[in-house]
Structure formats: C-alpha cells, structure tokens
C-alpha cells in the first residue's frame, strides 16, 4: 500500500492533482481508520491510465464517463462496448492531434531551413539553455 506522497512520487504527479482526481470521482483510495489515503497496485495502475488520458487532453468529464461505465458494468449489464466506443472516439482525437503536431513540426523544420539559407554562417548546433 502507498501513501499519497508515495503515489505522487511514483507517478510524478502532485498530491493536489491526485486529490483533485479523487474529488472528481476518478480515483477511489481506501482510507485508514484515521482517514489517511492508501493506494494499492491496482489504483496505481489506474492513476497512470488516467494520467495518460489527461496527457492526451481527454476531458475530465469523458474520463468520469469511462469510470462510471466501468463501475456500472456487471454480468447483467456489460458496458464494454460503450467503453470501447469512448476510447475509439478519443483515439481519433489523439490521431488528429498527432497529425497536427507533425504538420507543425514540418513547418518549424521548413522555417529553420529558410533561416539557415539566409544566414549560412550561423551555427547549426542547437541552442543550449542553462
């Protein structure tokens, strides 16, 4: 079992963010008798999944929808197809983001090449910041 500070360190996420995700209904840590949050390996894996979804700009509301579907799934009420559709729709969004980033990267590459043609004496070494 992990404390919030341990889970924060393991996921490189602030405790504030973890508490926020709990408040938003995305995480469900157990608690000790005196109210201290405790996380197990399953919750750590789940938090990493949530963090990946957030890194791709999936809205909190969509993640909550996924959580709700997951939690409401049972033998009598299977939500697998709904969760699949939600993830497929988000995958399309991520693919569009990747395409946009590739186009932006190409534009930057072209702009750098144009500047180097204008100023061939400028160093081709990347700028290093302290």
Percentage of residues assigned to helices: 55-70%
> What low-confidence regions span 5 or more consecutive residues with pLDDT below 50?
none
Elements, N to C (H/E): HHEEHHH
CA-atom Rg in angstroms: 21 Å
- Strand order, biggest sheet? 1-2
Tell me, rounded to a whole number, the average pLDDT.
93
Number of helices: 5
Please describe the biggest sheet, giving its number of strands, its sense, and whether it closes into a barrel.
Answer: 2 strands, antiparallel
Proportion of beta-strand residues: under 5%
| Overall morphology | flat
Task: Write down how many β-strands occur, each being a DSSP E stretch of 2 or more residues.
Answer: 2
User: Which structural class best describes the helix and strand composition?
Assistant: mainly alpha
User: What's the end-to-end separation, in Å?
Assistant: 39 Å
Descriptive overview:
The chain has 130 residues and is mainly α. The chain is 65% helix and 3% strand. The chain has a two-stranded antiparallel sheet with strand order 1-2. Strand 1 and strand 2 (37-38) form a beta hairpin. Helix 4 runs antiparallel to helix 5. It is flat, with a radius of gyration of 21 Å. The mean pLDDT is 93.
Brief account:
With 130 residues, this protein is mainly alpha-helical.
Characteristic key phrases:
130 residues, 3% strand, mainly alpha
What's the SSE blueprint?
Elements: H1 4-11, H2 15-23, E1 30-31, E2 37-38, H3 41-55, H4 60-72, H5 80-118
């Amino acid at each position: 079992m992990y404390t919030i500070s341990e889970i924060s360190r393991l996921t490189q996420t602030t405790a504030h963010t973890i508490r926020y995700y709990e408040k938003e209904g995305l995480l469900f840590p157990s608690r000790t008798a005196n109210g201290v949050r405790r996380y197990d390996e399953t919750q750590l894996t789940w938090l990493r999944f949530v963090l990946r979804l957030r890194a791709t700009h999936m809205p909190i509301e969509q993640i909550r929808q996924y959580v709700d579907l997951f939690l409401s799934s049972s033998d009598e009420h299977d939500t697998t197809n709904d969760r699949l559709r939600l993830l497929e729709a988000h995958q399309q969004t991520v693919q569009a983001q990747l395409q946009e980033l590739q186009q932006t990267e190409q534009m930057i590459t072209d702009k750098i090449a144009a500047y180097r043609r204008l100023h061939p004496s400028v160093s081709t070494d990347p700028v290093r910041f302290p």
